[in-house]
Amino acid sequence: MSDAKASRSPTRSTLKLGMAQMCSSNTHQRNIETLEALAEEAHRAGVELLALPEASGLLNRDVAAARLQVTDEANDPFLAVARRLAAQYGIWIHTGSTPLSRGKEPRFSNSSHLIDPSGALNTRYDKIHLFDVNLPDHPPSRESDRYAPGGQAVLAHTPWGSFGMSVCYDLRFPHLYRDYAKAGANVLFIPSAFAMATGVAHWETLLRARAIENGCFVVAAAQCGKHDDGRETWGQSMIIDPWGKVLVDMEKHIGLSIAELDLTCVATTRASIPSLANERAYSFGADQHETKSVSAA
To answer: What is the pTM of this model?
Structure first.
């Protein structure tokens, strides 16, 4: 697990968090305009950290058109503006994710960044698990055709403690979040652009499960609505506390929602149900009861 270069000792026990629900466009510029408005609103409200959804910088499934816009981390226009706004307003910005080029690799990375109030890139995480699925009555989805998977879990260290980084389909792999919790994470970021069919069936259930089983806050900023590239996303951006209580449910609202997180309740919840401490190693044993087949006479 990769660690960011920052203090590991929490110095703040409350976090004023702004979470954005977006309907991102297939061009950087329109999404930059949205980001500028969100950051200004968050600043006026006294937000300390602004969390964005997956594909906040660019949502475009037309690979040829996207390739004309996508560039590397150093030159990405959305990241550049996010860094400027973080420094201008003195806030942290979690970018959710945006596609970046990977040198000679023909596929993009789905990259998430945490930017500190100086505008520096505190942490980068590349989405590990890619959405290659076969939903009933839908054409197959092959995110791996367009994106290359990341290979490192990343823990970001902040004045509020350690935050686990992930993106969307990672949500279905609970061992990732268990490892984050065991490494000291008190907040799990799960920015997403969930499909409609899986959103209605699984989104809230999976988010609440990740919060409850790990005793962590879950911050899940999401895409919502009908996008320029023709797809439709589920929305329902959520903030969930370590007991599984839904603090924020944005349903289909586009814009900013603000919540004050009391991070001391992470320790309180884990003391009440110490599943991390109670976890035991185990192995798979051989079947002790051999089953014999009996032939008919």
So the answer is: 0.93
Q: From the candidates 48, 54, 143, 224, which is the catalytic residue?
A: 54
CA angle 36, 42, 46 (to 5 degrees): 145
pLDDT tens digit string along 277-286? 999 999 998 7
* String of DSSP letters for 250-262: -TT--EEEEEEEE
Of 23, 48, 143, 168, the catalytic one is: 168
What are residue 111's phi and psi, to 5 degrees?
-110, 135
**Residue 206 identity:** L
Q: Which residues of the chain have pLDDT under 70?
A: 4-8, 287-297
Catalytic pick among 23, 127, 143, 265: 127
**Is-contact 115 82, C-beta < 8 A?**
yes
Neighbours of 281 (CB within 10 A): 4
Cβ–Cβ under 8 Å, residues 46 and 259: no
| Predicted local distance difference test score (pLDDT) of residue 288 | 60
Catalytic, 127? Answer: yes
